[in-house]
Every structure is written in C-alpha cells, then in structure tokens.
Design brief:
The chain has 221 residues and is mainly alpha-helical. It has a domain of 149 residues. It is 78% helix and 0% strand. It contains 8 helices and no strands. The longest helix has 26 residues. It is globular.
C-alpha cells in the first residue's frame, strides 16, 4: 500500500497545481506571454492526475474518480492537440494518435452512459444523473472533434475554439473533483457538488467561445 500512498500524494499535489495553473491560464487567456507556459504546466499536471487516478480508482473501486479523470484529461488532451491541427481545412491529415484518442475516450464516454442507465434503474438517482451528464457531454465532444478531424469546419478560429473549449471543460472537471473530494466539510448536496461547477462555468465558456468566432471559411467553388 506504500505505492498507493505515494501516488495519492502525487495526485493531490498535481490537483492543487492544476487548480492554480488552470485559473492562471484562464485569466491570462488573451494571448499574453505567460499563457503558454502556465497552460503547459496545467496540461502536464492533468496528465499526472489522469495516470495516478487510473491506479487509485482501481484499488479503491472508485468509478467516479475514473469518470472525472477520463473526462478531464480527454478535454485537456484534445485541446492540446488542437494547437497542432490548425490546417485541417487545408487537407491537413490528423495523426493516428488523434483517432486513437477519440476511439479510447469515446468508449469510456459511452460506458458512462450505460453505467448511468444501470444506476438510474437501481434507484441511484444522483450518481446516475452525474454519470449521464458527463457521458453525454463527453460523447458530444467526441462527435464534434471527429467532425473537426475530418476537416468539417466552418469557423477560421476552429482550432482556437477547440483549444479554449477543451481546456475550460477540463478545468470544470478538475474543480468538480475538488468539490466532490472535499464535500465532507463543505456539506453540499451530492448533485450540487458534482454538477455545480458545470452549471457555473459552462455559461462562461459559451460566452468566451462566442467571442472567438471569426470569419467563416470560404467554401471552395
């Protein structure tokens, strides 16, 4: 169990770093020189969280730790990859790793939905709704990303919108993990602890994505 203790400490430290750097990246989002290095630290802290969560969720049989870890890292990973896929509208071909990412996490998100149906039928309403929301949002993100990878884009800033939306989505999941794991002293209803960050920050994300919309890509004659 020594390994579990070490990984838990690493997981907690990485979680704290992600909360601070994620907020910093959002505040510095308007193309300031500090945005890139802060965002890079945020991404790698999320990678550490994901890797450690794989083991911790297994030994603790914590399905929801696995759900949040998958959702948050998928969002951060596709946002990170979007910076290298700026010319999809000019026949740029995605790397095979991009399709592997979509296949792996698509299966995970579909699993969340199936698990949600099982929970709802078993009377576990709160956790069933949570799993259904995260699974549905994840599948929608898969669908949107696959369309983008196939070059089906209309906005010139499609890569920047994917980056901003993905990173913000992963930060929402990181805050959700914090509120859930610390809800013993916060005393929030479970549904609020799980979905409160989403309800608060998704409108912010929608507004920011609206600001990033630019000129439409001209259709080829």
């Amino acid at each position: 169990m020594m390994l579990a203790g070490i990984l838990k400490i690493i997981h907690i430290v990485a979680g704290g770093v992600s909360l601070l750097t994620g907020l910093g990246a959002l505040v510095l989002r308007n193309r300031t020189p500090l945005h890139k290095p802060v965002g890079r630290i945020y991404f790698w802290s999320m990678a550490v969280i994901f890797i450690t969560a794989l083991y911790l969720s297994y030994i603790k049989s914590n399905v929801f730790l696995w759900c949040v870890a998958c959702f948050s890292f998928y969002s951060a990973l596709t946002a990170y990859r979007s910076l290298r896929l700026k010319k999809l509208h000019q026949q740029q071909k995605p790397s095979p790793v991009d399709w592997v990412i979509e296949a792996f996490f698509g299966i995970m998100h579909f699993g969340f939905v199936v698990f949600a149906i099982y929970l709802l039928k078993s009377g576990e309403t709160s956790f069933g709704v949570v799993s259904l929301v995260f699974g549905s949002i994840g599948l929608r993100a898969n669908f949107t990303t696959i369309k983008r990878l196939r070059g089906n884009v209309s906005e010139k800033n499609y890569w920047l919108m994917a980056h901003a939306g993905g990173m913000t989505g992963s930060y929402i999941a990181a805050i959700t993990a914090f509120t859930v794991n610390n809800n013993a002293w916060m005393g929030l209803p479970n549904i609020i602890a799980w979905l409160g960050p989403t309800a608060i920050l998704v409108p912010f994300m929608i507004v920011q994505l609206g600001k990033l919309k630019g000129n439409k890509i001209q259709a080829k004659p």
